[in-house]
Amino acid sequence: NGSRIVDEGMNTKEFEKNIDFAKDSSTVDSIDFIIRDIKGNSASTSLRVTKKGGTAGGELIRYNNITLDAQSVTDGKGFLSLSNGSTYTLQSAYGIQGSISILYYYDAIGTDANTIASPGANIDASVFTGTYGLPNWTVINTTRFYQITLSQQEFEAITDPVFVVSSYSESSGKRKAKNLVAGDVYSFKDESTSKYGIFRVYGVAGQDMGSVTFSIVMQK
């Protein structure tokens, strides 16, 4: 739709690249593939993606006022399942690894401070240790995050699934939502289910003995 997504320079006979995109609310999306040689000669082809009648991105579900504890809280619940909105301790999360797509911790090693991430976020092994620590997990889900700007009123008024999907940037998603403060808003994609959502932070308290409180709206 007139936006440049990929611009590659190369010296090769073949080129392969996987590109994910989210259909927006327009009736038709146009995706053009253009290749030019060093002399300016070009060839192109187009892909048109139309919106199916009655399709609106599915239903939305909300999980309000979730509190996740940081890693040093005794029996703290720092792990979240997006399938049911329930929180879990490290030990209980270990038993349902495939259901865990969100976690919270305080980064005292680097500069990330209060961080929402996922098991696949390349978290230092010293954060979650012991028998149930992340290095011992066999199912590692990854969720990626993209910071956006929404007021509390705008966030709470979200009813359009297409808006939730379109708010995420496939090319700019990061594995960590870091240095969190109250008022931060992130769009996210759970790569294990390909579902999109948005969360808004309502409170951050403390460091490795602290917690974060936030609400989520996401595809059901």
Task: Kindly summarize this structure in a few lines.
This protein is mainly beta and 220 residues long.
Walk me through what this model shows.
- The protein is mainly beta and 220 residues long.
- 7% of the residues lie in helices and 35% in strands.
- The chain has helices spanning 90-94, 152-156, 161-166, and strands at residues 28-36, 42-50, 60-69, 79-81, 87-88, 100-107, 113-117, 143-148, 185-190, 195-205, 211-219.
- The longest helix has 6 residues, at 161-166.
- The chain is globular.
- The model has no long low-confidence stretch (mean pLDDT 92).
Topology of helices and strands:
Elements: E1 28-36, E2 42-50, E3 60-69, E4 79-81, E5 87-88, H1 90-94, E6 100-107, E7 113-117, E8 143-148, H2 152-156, H3 161-166, E9 185-190, E10 195-205, E11 211-219
Antiparallel strand pairs: 1-2, 3-11, 4-5, 4-6, 6-7, 8-9, 9-10, 10-11
| Radius of gyration over C-alpha positions, nearest whole angstrom | 20 Å
Average predicted local confidence, pLDDT = 92
| Percentage of β-strand residues | 35-45%
- Structural class designation: mainly beta
Number of strands: 11
Question: Can you count the helices?
Answer: 3
Largest sheet: 5 strands, antiparallel
Helical amount among residues, as a percent range? under 10%
Distance between the termini: 28 Å
Overall 3D shape: globular
Key phrases:
about 220 residues; 4-stranded antiparallel sheet; about 5% helix; about 35% strand
